[in-house]
Amino acid sequence: MLTVTNVILSALSLLAIVVFLNYLSSRHPLRVKWSPHFRFELSSATRAVLEQLTDRIDIVVYTDRQAATALHTSIDLLLEEYAWHCPRIRLRHVDYIRDRTTAQSIVQSHDLAGQTATDLIIFAAGQRRSVVTVQELRDYQIGDQIAATLKNEPSRLGFHGESLFTSAIWRLHTDRSLRVAYLIGHGEHDPESQGAEGYREFQQILQAKGFDFASHHLLKDGPLPQDTDLVVIAGPRYRFSDPELSVLDEYLNSGGRLLALFHFNGLSNPSGVEEWLRNWGLDVGRNIIEDVSLRLGSDLAVMNFADHPVTTPLVKAELGLQMYLPRTVMPLPAPNRTGFGLAFTSPEGIARPYRPAGSASIRTPRGSSGPLPVLAAVEIPIAEPNPDGETKTARILAAGDSSFWGNHRIHQLGNRDFLTLTTGWLTDQFGLIQGIGPQPLYRFQLPVTDRQLGYLAGIMLGLGPGSALAVGLIVWWRQRTE
After folding, report:
1. Burial (0-12, 13-18, 19+ Cβ within 10 Å), 393
2. Are strands 211-216 and 178-183 parallel, antiparallel or unpaired?
3. pLDDT (tens digit per residue) in 242-262
4. SS3 label, residue 71
5. Fold of 176-355+365-426
6. Beta bridge partners of 178
């Protein structure tokens, strides 16, 4: 009887110890970093953002789990780090192929009916949401990998998960959407059109990034709203009136931000914005750029970039832009502003002056030669400080083409990524994620000949079934000899 009692007490004591240890581990977890190359250790900037969270953040990884790649594994590991560091984050996975009911509920609750991308990471806080697509998370290399393979070196690809995830969480935490005023009334690209030249995809991408996107007619709707963060002029084909340009002057003089894009069809009928931009330090040419060395059918590949926050990530990823009949855009020197060219043609690029149809000239003159800028930006400090005592800065980024962000081309090369980078710089979103760089993704290649593959197959058969057969023979032999 005493023995049975001792066994019961020992079992209860052991159970109590196990429960106590589980309680301690749940309340005071200890994580040990075993690997010196721990890829997903959150930066101090991200941890600072997570410490400020006061509301619950729901993260939904909306993917096809059966088609998951190494990139999806990296996403899962990184998001688990976010959830471990912040108890206010709730992480869940939804397989839109195998759990269609839940997937449909996610689409309806997060208003994703018009989203063309399939694999998404959805961040939500109440009714607010921000969406990151899987395609945005890594740098796709289009360069030649042969040299690296011959040297038996890994190919390094940048993983931008932490910077994009932290930005999405911060936008939800601040509870303020950035307002974009998309100007209409001058033949601009239709933001509701799903045609090749429409800007429906452009609008959806900005909305998924948390921007409050609204069309604005300067004559019908009046002056720009006071809280406008960014004004977009996309491919105007009819002239702006002087009162409209005055509204834009007033906006920029208050530290506003402008994105101006110019369409090929606007060459025959300038909108007036081209000439007006000279007052702000940018010269928009009336020409057509040709670059035989980088021609993509009727389009032009732009692969030459300056070192700038909106273009350096493209350089690191070896990505280019795909444009249609761009024109030159170059900064004008002035002591009170900072201008810089962002993207250029190759040295073989030429800019031919525009000649209207029916011109007496038989051959268009050659014009300027490359490298020629097709993208440029300017920063202008505003003398009047804001209420916080800080000096305001107006920013303008202009592109010699607007079709490259149309529905037909926005997903070509690095066009979509460049839209995210451009709007981030214009609206000061880069300040949030300074110090959060891309993490390396390693892809190792092991070149194996047919002969070596045969050796490997023989070794695997010898170690697996061969060893089992050997053990069986030894046992059989010993039983027979006994």
Report:
1. middle
2. parallel
3. 999 999 999 999 999 999 999
4. helix
5. Rossmann fold (3.40.50)
6. 211
Tell me which amino acid residue 108 is: Q
Neighbours of 414 (CB within 10 A): 25
What tokens appear for 249 in the block? 């002057």
Say how many C-beta atoms besides its own lie within 10 A of residue 76's C-beta.
16
Rounded to 5°, the CA angle 341-140-156 comes to 105
Residue intervals in the chain for CATH 3.40.30.10: 44-164
Q: Which alpha helices (DSSP H) does 28-128 contain, by range?
A: 44-51, 70-85, 100-109
pLDDT tens track for 174-222:
777 789 999 999 999 999 999 999 999 999 888 877 788 999 999 999 8
> 325: which 2 tokens?
């009949």
Shortest CA distance to 187 belongs to which of 474, 402, 372? 402
CB 274 within 8 A of CB 284: yes
CA terminus-to-terminus distance, the chain: 46
CATH 3.40.50: which residues of the chain? 176-355+365-426
Helix or strand or coil: residue 116?
Answer: coil
Do residues 318 and 143 touch, judged by C-beta distance below 8 A? Answer: yes
- Of residues 266, 264, 244, 228, the one with CA closest to residue 184: 244
Question: Number of C-alpha atoms within 13 angstroms, CB side, residue 381?
Answer: 9
Burial of 107 (0-12, 13-18, 19+ CB in 10 A): middle
C-alpha to C-alpha distance for 442 and 186, rounded to whole angstroms: 48
Question: Which CATH entry fits the domain spanning 44-164: 3.40.30.10, 3.40.50.720, 3.40.50.300, 2.60.120.260?
Answer: 3.40.30.10
Of residues 318, 260, 317, 264, the one with CA closest to residue 290: 264
The pLDDT value given to residue 151? 42
Q: Round to whole Å and give the CA distance between 342 and 329.
A: 10
Q: Are 42 and 85 in contact (CB under 8 A)?
A: yes
